Fold these 3 entries.
Entry 1:
Amino acid sequence: MSDTYSGEFYCVKCKEKRQAEGKVVETNGRRMAKGTCPVCGTNLNRILGKA
């Protein structure tokens, strides 16, 4: 299961919402999308709902 998520992430370094693409990973029963900020290159995380 290697899904991709495309949508809004919150960049902590820029303090703004960014449109990015990332891989969906499951950690401790929680689905998370992990990507990189297109502006500053920081790692982005977004917790997704159970589906």
Entry 2:
Amino acid sequence: MTSLFRFVYNYWIVITLFLLFIITFLSLSPQPSLPDVPGTDKTHHFIAYAALMFGVALRKPKNWLLIAVLFICWSGGIELIQPYVNRYGEWLDLAANVGGLMCGAILANIINLFFPLTSNVNK
């Protein structure tokens, strides 16, 4: 398990940018109907944004809280744009996104507490 955390710790930028791209693409792609996957729409938002924040909070670069605020603004922007691409923008989606970001940060802080991942690379 520690090797997985180390991988996320070392490649946090690539993972974060990839997840941000995927979340944005899936959020703004017009769909005739929602995909048939288990769970609610809000659960998917929560998990996606928790995963997005996890790597950033695990590595804690110099301005990681600023990055979290950027993610919140990005999420809000997506919700504002969605009605223009044949999707539904919902403020409850934004709330689920913010909850996911907070959960991802808390989980990363717990992991940093019990499995400290130090690196010779500047944070």
Entry 3:
Amino acid sequence: MKGQNKLFIAIIVALILGVVMGGIVHTQYPESSEGFSKNIKLLGTVFIRLVQMIIAPLVFTTLVVGIAKMSDIKMIGRVGTKAMLWFIIASLVSLTIGLVLVNWLEPGKVMQLPIPAAGDAGEVVANSQGLSLEQFVKHVIPKSLFDAFATNEVLQIVVFSIMFGVALANMGEEYTKPIVRALDISAHAILKMVGYIMWFAPLGVLGAIAAVVATNGFEIFKVYAIYLRDFFFALGILWLVLLVVGYLILGNRLFELLRRIKAPLLIAFSTTSSEAVFPKLVEELERFGCNNRIVSFILPLGYSFNLDGSMMYMTFAAIFIAQIYGIDMTLGQQITMLLVLMLTSKGIAGVPRASLVIIVATCTMFGIPPEGIALILPIDHFCDMGRSMTNVLGNALATSSVSKWEGQLDNHGGDL
């Protein structure tokens, strides 16, 4: 966690430097602001391209491994089915809440930025106009896996990954164990790369903020205040929905569960990582009365498939970036984005800022300039605190609810 704190401090320092540099150019050398912005934004381009570099292998390895390991669910039968139903419904609800509220509150409409005219994002915007049914089908079904990898066509990679994962899951664990293990190791290695690449984030922040302030002045900070206000309001709505559902299933024992998991919730909030509290969460759920076999099965699955806070943030952030660049998305495009995020986000564990990779991939796919991710990086740490805590709550409720449905929720006074 010390590394994450250092990264956060580095991003804050880069933010301040960017504001100072951009402010000096905006006030003292306004005639040079355009050239300065164009050159300083190259720092952001470096960061964005590093993130785009790992999108295809990350989606492929995490999805294939997640689906291939689903053969374990057959051994537990009903428990696995109920868990997956919870995960799917909770994910759809989280994504929908983010989508509805960001469209209602419109935090990105406070300030408008010009769409980058050159580079990958500009090409994507130009190519994304007038998407027909024929183009959509071609966009979804890959004619070549290598072509999909080369062009970062996330939906095509998802289609191949699902088919490949299902094939592995039905070939027998002993036969497929080496390749699943190899892909699992690859997925962890790529997630490790995410950590390395995030150390380039301060440069991306410096470039993005300096460029924006140099051309637009200090209006960006009004956007940040509104973005944080609206995001935490949306998060509050999601908490209300989760707690109401939890009360309908657990009754008054919901309040006991909240008392039990208050420490994991606070740790996740302060460290911005839901994985940091995994051992403590296992212990507290068993003390709450959940069957230890159900906990050991559902909780690891939930850490890949049931990240409610991260799911809501993905739709919220992606539409916010579209709004700030003045890109109007149709209802059909937004629903398609929701379904794409439903698939591509699976397998992204509770690693700080791993969800940003998926947001960049989604923005690129829907013609939204991925450079926009650098604009929200300075305040992403605060958003990450809220969504990590929400992920912990969602997984605790999922495990407790399935235990209750299975008649395996005891009330033993907190004894392990």
